[in-house]
Amino acid sequence: MYAVIRTYLGAGAQQLFEHLEAHKAEVEAALRTVPGLISYTLLNTGDGGTAVTVCTDKTSTDASLKVAREWIQENAADIRAEPPIVTEGPVIVQIN
């Protein structure tokens, strides 16, 4: 398994996560199209937020990044959020 964490901070991050929350069904539908998706979680931190994606492999997490970026470009282009801080790597332990 492989995971990617995207953290949005700074200008526009709070507005972006308010928009994502208001459209969470659409976000979920878009991410469900990613082959190899195991889990996807959005956290609203009040001043921005974090997305945590776990997939079967790096190729799938790369696909999730593309889907998320495209969704934001198509549905929240007017929100000028800073690009996310991206952290990624192989999953060592996952407890369900």
Task: Please give a structural write-up.
- Helices cover 38% and strands 29% of the residues.
- Strands 2-3-1-4 form a 4-stranded antiparallel β-sheet.
- It is an alpha+beta fold and 96 residues long.
- It has 3 helices and 4 strands.
- It is globular and about 35 Å long.
- The mean pLDDT is 94.
- The protein has one domain (2-90): Alpha-Beta Plaits (2-Layer Sandwich).
Question: How would you summarize this macromolecular structure in one to three sentences?
Answer:
This protein is an alpha+beta fold and about 100 residues long. It contains 3 helices and 4 strands, in the order E-H-H-E-E-H-E.
CATH architecture: 2-Layer Sandwich
Shape estimate: globular
Order of helices and strands: EHHEEHE
Percentage of helical residues?
25-40%
Structure annotation, total helices: 3
- Beta fraction of the residues? 25-35%
CATH topology tier name = Alpha-Beta Plaits
Number of domains: 1
Radius of gyration: 13 Å
First-residue to last-residue Cα separation: 14 Å
CATH class: Alpha Beta
What would you call the structural class? alpha+beta
**Secondary structure tally: strands:** 4
